[in-house]
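Is this the right way to post structure tokens for a design question? Let me know if I should format differently. Anyway, here goes:
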């Protein structure tokens, strides 16, 4: 059985005060389940606060991005080893907003993935198609290319053994539109199959999260699908009660 994950991608939201309130509510109110993990992804500047408030709790934390270089003259960038210094265990890699707004192409995403692994972080690799790509029938081709770029640079599936995948259709992110459980399941199964061709054991263990307007109202139906192993939650992760309810709906699987 794969342990489910409910992850909160806070994006560029929060203040010291709101972070304090949100993390205090989560740590005080979370009724921990053995079958579901909770991870939050605050902006970099709140990682120290997250470490202070979450250390010793069941909630893990990570960064939303890392630099494509290890260190050096890269003004404004933050490296994988720097975030490890704040006891992060995870980092998002290749989120669609990084790809579409900051020009992160497959090669750069693959490089970041490997740097995360080298720093002993668990990368959460995000893949997903745009609306135009879906309408043109290119969904499978696009997500399989995005995953393929990692498999190629990593030289096989072994590097996915300590990694997480997230399927996030771009048209569903922050739009209120959600893929139906069946639409999401189809792509999750395809991604797992792509890994299984290289290594069936790793494919079976790989957690594949769904992201894109996950809310309490649709969480249970999505998580009930056989290849959906939890959610990467944006907007709804900023509200402690909503996020906790999403976590509890994963427990029912
Ligand atoms: P959303 O974002 O839940 O607000 O759609 C998901 C994400 O971008 O990870």
């Amino acid at each position: 059985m794969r342990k489910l994950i409910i992850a909160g991608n806070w994006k560029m939201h929060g203040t010291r005060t709101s972070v304090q309130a949100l993390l205090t509510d989560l740590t005080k109110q979370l009724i921990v389940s053995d079958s579901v993990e909770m991870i939050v992804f605050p902006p970099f500047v709140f990682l120290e606060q997250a470490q202070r408030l979450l250390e010793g709790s069941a909630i893990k934390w990570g960064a939303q991005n890392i630099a494509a270089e290890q260190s050096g003259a890269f003004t404004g960038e933050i490296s994988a080893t720097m975030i490890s210094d704040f006891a992060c265990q995870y980092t998002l890699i290749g989120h669609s907003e990084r790809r579409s707004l900051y020009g992160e192409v497959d090669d750069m995403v693959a490089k970041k993935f490997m740097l995360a692994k080298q720093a002993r972080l668990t990368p959460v690799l995000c893949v997903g198609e745009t609306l135009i790509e879906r309408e043109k029938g290119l969904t499978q081709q696009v997500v399989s290319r995005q995953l393929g770029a990692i498999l190629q640079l990593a030289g096989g599936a072994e590097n996915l053994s300590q990694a997480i995948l997230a399927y996030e259709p771009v048209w569903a992110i922050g739009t209120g539109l959600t893929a139906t459980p069946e639409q999401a399941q189809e792509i999750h199964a395809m991604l797992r199959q792509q890994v299984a061709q290289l290594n069936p054991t790793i494919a079976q263990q790989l957690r594949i999260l769904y992201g894109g307007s996950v809310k309490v109202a649709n969480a249970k139906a999505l998580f009930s699908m056989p290849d959906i192993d939890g959610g990467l939650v944006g907007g709804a992760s900023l509200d402690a009660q909503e996020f906790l309810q999403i976590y509890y709906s994963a427990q029912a699987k």
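Format looks fine. Someone answered above. Worth noting: The pocket of 2-phosphoglycolic acid is lined by residues 9, 168, 173-174, 211-214, 232-236 (CB under 6 Å). The chain has one domain: 11-70+81-251.
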